[in-house]
# Entry
Amino acid sequence: MGSSVESQVERFVHALVISGGWLDEVALGLCAELPNGSYPGEEPWAVVLEMLCGTIGTALQSAEPGDLQRATELIDLAAAGVEEHLRLARELSRRMHECGDDDPRTYG
# Structure
């Protein structure tokens, strides 16, 4: 990976983590603050998600649909990569800790 690609990946990950964490906090806070019964028959999370879709949709109205689709694909790809590495790390850790005392392997 060239340094400019590494820099872009770092910016992408930073934006994804910071924005995702912040949006999660906003959504949880809004859910907690919705007055009981203000949206009868609807789940607070669904109401807040709809609100966020409206707000974010307005902000992104000039974006091309293909760009939004590609951005979603990249977010999904990033999450899948993290999930896969976590699974591999868990498996490696399990293998390392399950080997017997007479097994000199320390790498799995």
In short: The first helix runs from residue 3 to 33. Residues 1-62 form one domain.
